[in-house]
TrEMBL record:
GO terms for molecular function: protein N-terminal-serine acetyltransferase activity; protein-N-terminal-alanine acetyltransferase activity. Keywords: Transferase. The keyword Transferase applies. PANTHER family: RIBOSOMAL-PROTEIN-SERINE ACETYLTRANSFERASE (PTHR43441). One of its GO terms (cellular component) is cytoplasm. Residues 44-190 form the N-acetyltransferase domain. This is RimJ/RimL family protein N-acetyltransferase. It holds the Pfam family Acetyltransf_3. Coiled coil: none annotated.
Length: 218
């Protein structure tokens, strides 16, 4: 048996892939992670901004690359059906351009997911953020039977709010975070199944989900 087929038998998430009109989202192997780390090293946002509650992008290019690898590996190691965080690499025209995550705790009972993402700076402003979040929302609602999806971004993150609004999210309160020593307000958003169905405009094709369902607690 080939090694790639063997690892998918043991860990079927490596066979899970999402397709949209322009993008492919897949669980990364080591080659994909190397390219994702390079995208992080090249830059994710302007130095005078910090859109993440954990400021992992404040380091040097090498530190950002290593942080990306360590984070991805840690998500593999801590996975359980009761507490999971699924991280895809996003590819456009075969090039790794960023990452899109879907996560949940006690999903089998709560049927609620959260999401997070980033794109390399050169790939921003092209609508990829909307398309890749639409892909994981389709996985959540169509593939896994979710009832709710949540998101949060800092109040000045116009791009993230634009994605959320286009996909049907509504306001769900605020939260406060300490970033770079200063208090920052985050705005929470929530999407229910009806709102997702009403705003759904991106065609998504899901491959390889069925053998993964026990890993999601389903």
């Amino acid at each position: 048996m080939r090694i790639d087929r063997m690892i998918t038998e043991y860990w079927p998430l490596f066979g899970l892939t999402l397709h949209t009109p322009r993008l492919e989202l897949r669980v990364p192997g080591l080659d994909d992670l190397a390219l994702l780390a390079a995208a992080a090293a090249a830059g994710v946002h302007a130095p005078d901004r910090q859109p993440f509650a954990v400021p992992w992008t404040d380091g040097t290019p090498l530190e950002r690359a290593r942080s990306t690898l360590q984070w991805q590996w840690s998500m593999w190691g801590r996975w359980s059906p009761q507490d999971w965080s699924l991280h895809f690499v996003t590819l456009a025209d075969g090039q790794v351009i960023g990452t899109q995550a879907l996560d949940a705790k006690d999903f089998a009972g709560l049927r609620e997911v959260g999401s997070g993402s980033w794109l390399g700076r050169e790939h921003q402003g092209k609508g990829y953020g909307t398309e890749m979040r639409a892909a994981v929302l389709d996985l959540a609602f169509t593939g896994l039977g979710a009832e709710w999806a949540t998101s949060e971004a800092f109040a000045d993150n116009v791009a993230s709010y634009g994605v959320s609004r286009r996909l049907g999210y509504t306001d769900d309160g605020t939260a406060r975070h300490l970033v770079r020593g200063e208090a920052v307000v985050g705005r929470r958003l929530r999407l229910d199944r009806a709102g997702w169905a009403a705003a759904r405009t991106v065609d998504v094709r899901i491959e390889g989900l069925e053998p993964c369902l026990p890993l999601f607690g389903l």
